[in-house]
Design a protein that fits this description.
- Two copies of one chain form a homodimer.
- By secondary structure, chain A is α/β, with parallel strands linked by helices.
- In chain A, 26% of the residues lie in helices and 29% in strands.
- In chain A, the strands form three sheets. Chain A has a nine-stranded mixed β-sheet with strand order 3-4-2-1-5-6-7-13-8, sandwiched between helices.
- The longest helix of chain A has 17 residues.
- The interface between A and B is large, with 76 and 76 residues.
């Protein structure tokens, strides 16, 4: 009997998110699927892990032969718990995260719990893909996203990814017929500019809400994720986790001797 | 009158950490210093931001002319609050984070709130340095770390860093005389292997603690942060935030046309 691929699915929007159901729908025919997600939204948690609280895992449903678990931890904790506790170090063939409600293009990748889960898997050399739809609505239409998720899962299963590389897939908020195709892109240089909104509570205390917008620092470039998304393409960015600025090493080398 | 550099200091160990006092000590003579930190430990929070809770900032002391603030947010929130709310978009000349109690070498950079603050500053092109001492103890001796922090702050002030590059500085737990010097290094390829410890609560419920160790995947390499630290050097890794695996782009390019 041929090996049935083992697929771990997680997200950062929590177990009730429609994007999770969409990803399970996209992945279910590719192998044996197991789902473990946070028990509520964990957006913007970046690569957070739970060190100061005990982690709990709860089985909450079985549907079409797929087991669903939820935890009080983050999306990164889900990968660790899935691998070590639920699957007890069985070999995982693919880790999928998402489908996120909202874009993870440009520098958002670094704030994203969706991508953090994919990157966590990638640390140990597991193939991993994070999917995001450019629609923050809890009622977003994932039908186009499911089509592309299937296509990309199929490619990764057949071609494999280089070790320690995962994918950041962002899908425009468009009907299937409006999408022009896939672009392999690089992360757009940019940052979130926050206008911290000041409010006053009933007791006179001031507080702030983070609210901002993405500043694209390379609007002219045509090989970036932002360009692809704004021009009707699904953006696929290959991602690694080497944060070294290699070309700066030479520049600083004299510090060793001065 | 010459411009007095404006220095923002934060950390992820919270306002009471001795490493914070050490960093203030190292930085105080280089310019006008302002301190904003979390109101308690935020280790392992990665690049988390606070989106679902209102952020509060409180002034809690003035010491030697330096204003100290604390917030319910993360280290990344501190950079945003410092820049937008406390300093009202005044030009910041340097962001310093730490001194962390514990190493942020290798892949720990991605879990680290200390480095997340430095990277956040770097997004907008502010020069930034994260400092970490290889001693988790709350009573760690920061005297050696202060000497190197001063030296590195001085160099960065004089030579500047390339735009969108920050530094990850890790300092061994050694006496000053035992340190061999500075090495400019790259991030060691590695991952944290977790043995999730299983416990049982008084009600029979199972829970887990994250507990693990760093697996160094390139023990033979001599240009890495891990090698430098194990051989008695202060490790200085230049860091950027482009997560693109550029060499994989070519490999996947055919997906655009198939």
């Amino acid at each position: 009997m041929p090996h049935k691929p083992l697929i771990l699915i997680t997200n950062d929007d929590g177990y009730e998110a429609r994007g999770l159901a969409a990803l399970v729908e996209a992945a279910k025919d590719f192998g044996e699927v197991i789902v473990i997600t946070p028990d509520g939204p964990r957006s913007g948690m970046g690569h957070a892990i739970t060190m100061n609280l005990p982690l709990r895992v709860k089985h909450y449903k079985t549907k079409n032969g797929i087991e669903f678990y939820r935890t009080n931890g983050t999306s990164v904790d889900c990968v660790k718990l899935g691998q070590r506790v639920l699957l007890q170090d069985r070999k995982i063939d693919l880790v999928l995260s998402g489908i996120n409600h909202g874009s993870n293009s440009s520098v958002s990748i670094i704030y994203s719990g969706t991508m953090a889960a994919a990157i966590e898997a990638c640390f140990e050399g597991l193939p991993a893909i994070g999917f995001s739809l450019l629609d923050y609505s809890s009622k977003a239409d994932f039908s186009t996203a499911i089509v592309f998720a299937k296509q990309i899962i199929d490619r990764v299963m057949k071609e494999r990814l280089p070790k320690h590389v995962c994918l950041n897939v962002n899908i425009p908020k468009l009907q299937l017929a409006e999408i022009k195709g896939i672009k392999i892109t690089r992360q757009t240089l940019g940052y979130w500019h926050e206008d911290l909104e000041e409010h006053t509570d009933p007791f006179g205390g001031k507080y702030y809400w983070l609210a901002g917008f993405l500043v694209n620092l390379e609007k002219e470039a045509i090989d970036t994720c932002e360009w692809a998304l704004q021009n009707g393409y699904v953006s696929v960015t290959p991602v690694h986790f080497d944060m070294t600025s290699h070309h700066t090493i030479v520049q600083l080398k004299h510090w060793e001797h001065d």
